[in-house]
Amino acid sequence: MNFLAHLYLSGDISDIKIGNFIADGVRGKQSKTFSTQIQQGILLHRAIDTFTDAHTCVDTSIARLQSTQGRFAPVVVDIFYDHFLAKNWQTYHKQPLAEYAQEFYTFVRTYWEILPQRVREVVFYMEKQDWLYNYASIKGMTKAFEGMSKRTKFASNMLTAPQDLEKDYLLFEEDFTTFFPQLVDFSKKKLEEILQDTPQEKPQEIL
């Protein structure tokens, strides 16, 4: 899953959300330098990724892209799924997506001093281009893929990913719609499990 889904699945505990957000920028024992709950957020992120990688709906989406996206097919699917979450945001969350996104950009800045450098770079572009909100449109995703294509070290076809999505739009949306509620249930249970060592803080319901 990509940024929007990971944030949504974190609940409302601030350090858990930050840990989940920065997890891809944290390597090995570096995680031990963060607070307990940030470490727990990192664990949640990795559990979500493991569940996602093993799911048959995700495998189906990836297979549909193999001929055009090759090694980058899983990355492209992550963004496709954030698109469907953003497009249907009101189904999953009470707060308007535009407001949710702006609140997150302000919130993450309060943790600036502890963010890994590569995460700071992501935040800069995320806020500047309003990724979380703009994933809801094909145009917004196109800009995201353009940026990723420029930053990747290897040749890719990510510039054509929006066309791949439009070609099989309903099939990708069906994969997401089947998969995501299962991921939400898994994440709630996993968050409860992770937080069992800190009984004074209870997991917040994912709205």
Describe the structure.
The chain has 207 residues and is an all-alpha fold. The chain has one domain (3-197). Helices cover 69% and strands 0% of the residues. The protein contains 12 helices and no strands. The protein has helices at 3-8, 14-22, 36-53, 56-69, 73-87, 89-92, 97-109, 117-129, 131-134, 138-151, 161-167, 169-194. Helix 4 (56-69) packs across helix 5. It is globular and about 45 Å long.
What layout of secondary structure does this protein have?
Blueprint: H1 3-8, H2 14-22, H3 36-53, H4 56-69, H5 73-87, H6 89-92, H7 97-109, H8 117-129, H9 131-134, H10 138-151, H11 161-167, H12 169-194
In DSSP terms, counting alpha (H) and pi (I) runs of 4 or more, how many helices?
12
Measured on Cα atoms, how large is the radius of gyration?
17 Å
Order of helices and strands: HHHHHHHHHHHH
How would you describe the shape? globular
Task: Estimate the mean pLDDT confidence.
Answer: 90
What distance lies between the first and last C-alpha atoms, to the nearest angstrom?
18 Å
Q: How many separate domains make up the residues?
A: 1
Instruction: Give the helix/strand class.
Output: mainly alpha
As residue ranges, the low-confidence spans are 199-204
